Amino acid sequence: MVKKLPHMKVKGTEPLVTIEINDTYILGVYQGTLSDYDLLLRYRQKDSSSKSGWSRIRTPKHIHWAVDAILKMNHNSVETKKFLNFLIHQWDNHIKPLKSDSERNTLLDVELLKNEANLEAAKYPGLANKGEYSIKFLYLIAKLLMIQEKTNLSTAYMFRNLLKALEEHKDIYKIVAVATHNRR
User: Fold this and answer.
1) In the chain, how many domains are there?
2) How far apart, in whole angstroms, are the C-alpha atoms of residue 89 and residue 38?
3) Residue 6 within any structural domain of the chain
4) pLDDT of 20-36, one tens digit each?
5) What is the edge-to-edge ordering of all strands in the sheet holding 39-45?
6) pLDDT at 26
7) Helices 172-179, 158-167: crossing angle, 10 deg rounding
8) Domain range for residue 134?
9) Contact yes or no for 146/90 (Cβ under 8 A)
10) pTM of the entire predicted model
11) Do the Cβ atoms of 12 and 31 come closer than 8 Å?
12) Tens digit of pLDDT for each residue in 35-73?
């Protein structure tokens, strides 16, 4: 029997791909409007208080990501720093802008993304069930946000600055400023 997922259509637009994560999240990746290969992310989360059993369709924000990383840092700072360092390394050495349909299609292979997220999550067992989001979900959001940012502006650095601010235990005001694009 094939499990029916809740719809992920946004303003009449179907996602390029839909990724189910831990039976708790559904991540939709859409064609954005900022560039030919812009990615727009949306998700739904299990919600027992909702009639449908799922949240409304949401856009992941850098601040949501940062708050969850802070929660995880409070539970296990060693593993959280290891995760943040891994993501900084990815940003610096492996994340490249999308420049072709072929690159985007390779990136958006659902099974490859799920396998990659499973492998990364297994490295951080101390962060399981800490914070709001799973490591699988955070990893996928981080990877796709980094690619989105570099695709739209190859010299971008905002997400990297957020990762560094979290990794360096900057004060909450600095982290919020970076995560909300406030130049203070």
Assistant:
1) 1
2) 22
3) no
4) 999 999 999 999 999 99
5) 17-21, 25-31, 39-45
6) 95
7) 160
8) 61-179
9) yes
10) 0.91
11) no
12) 999 999 999 999 999 998 999 999 999 999 999 999 999
